[in-house]
């Protein structure tokens, strides 16, 4: 596997980036067996996978910090793919969790604003993937709430309303969409095994997410070259020809 032409940019090697932006389900995704870790493993020597997950965050806060994560720079430095994965906190019941709750219409506007901001910094819609929140297992999550001294603060039916809005935003804005809320409940299957505590993903849930996300990511990165040659293809007597060059050797 020789290094492909165009894989080296100037005097330094610039690795393409895949940006994962979301709440705790993204933040925890780099733990062993997590969907982010699986992406990073699949894309090693091709892309850097950046975890920008923020536990507890909603779209109101995400919209504020997104310009700190991606700025308008040389287009070659823009992410080749961006996932936006919020809604599990936005969909909290207002009376029980007012700090994280975001009204449905505002959630819609925030997602639209983030897609529009990415477009303004030269990350077009075809590089963006929206993910709906996964379904909520109310019985398991209620146990977690009781342990924390509070009442059940989320309902699966309400999460479903946010998932539908996320799906509609993707259709309106022209982005890809991964509708986890629907897929995990397809054919009325028991989705509780996909969740570790009723809200966050279990190992099975991480595997499920990765298996459905990978085809969407792959179509955005499949044309990218492998960076640096396979070890057997390195020039033996003058390795710098292979390792420092700008094309095939």
TrEMBL record:
The gene is Iah1. PANTHER family: ISOAMYL ACETATE-HYDROLYZING ESTERASE 1, ISOAMYL ACETATE-HYDROLYZING ESTERASE 1 HOMOLOG. Belongs to the 'GDSL' lipolytic enzyme family. IAH1 subfamily. One of its GO terms (molecular function) is identical protein binding. It comes from the Eukaryota. Probable lipase. This is Isoamyl acetate-hydrolyzing esterase 1 homolog. Signal peptide: none annotated. Keywords: Hydrolase. GO terms for biological process: gene expression. Pfam families: Lipase_GDSL.
């Amino acid at each position: 596997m020789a290094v492909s032409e165009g894989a080296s940019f100037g005097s330094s090697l610039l690795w393409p980036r895949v940006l994962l932006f979301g709440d705790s389900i993204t933040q925890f995704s780099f733990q062993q067996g997590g969907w982010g870790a699986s992406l990073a493993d699949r894309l090693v020597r091709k892309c850097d996978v950046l975890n920008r997950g923020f536990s507890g965050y909603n779209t109101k806060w995400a919209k504020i910090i997104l310009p700190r994560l991606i700025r308008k720079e040389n287009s070659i430095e823009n992410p080749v793919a961006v996932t936006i994965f919020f809604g599990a906190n936005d969909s909290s019941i207002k009376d029980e969790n007012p700090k994280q709750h975001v009204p449905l219409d505002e959630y819609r506007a925030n997602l639209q604003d983030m897609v529009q901001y990415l477009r303004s910094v030269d990350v077009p819609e075809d590089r963006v993937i929206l993910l709906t929140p996964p379904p909520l297992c109310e019985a398991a999550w209620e146990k977690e709430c009781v342990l924390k001294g509070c009442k059940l603060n989320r309902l699966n039916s309400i999460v479903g309303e946010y998932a539908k809005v996320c799906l509609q935003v993707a259709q309106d804005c022209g982005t890809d969409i991964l509708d986890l809320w629907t897929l995990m409940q397809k054919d009325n299957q028991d989705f509780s095994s996909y969740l570790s505590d009723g809200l966050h993903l279990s190992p099975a849930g991480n595997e499920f997410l990765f298996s459905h996300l990978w085809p969407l990511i792959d179509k955005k990165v499949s044309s990218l070259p492998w960076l640096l040659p396979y070890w057997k293809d390195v020039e033996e007597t003058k390795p710098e020809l292979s390792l420092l060059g700008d094309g095939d050797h």
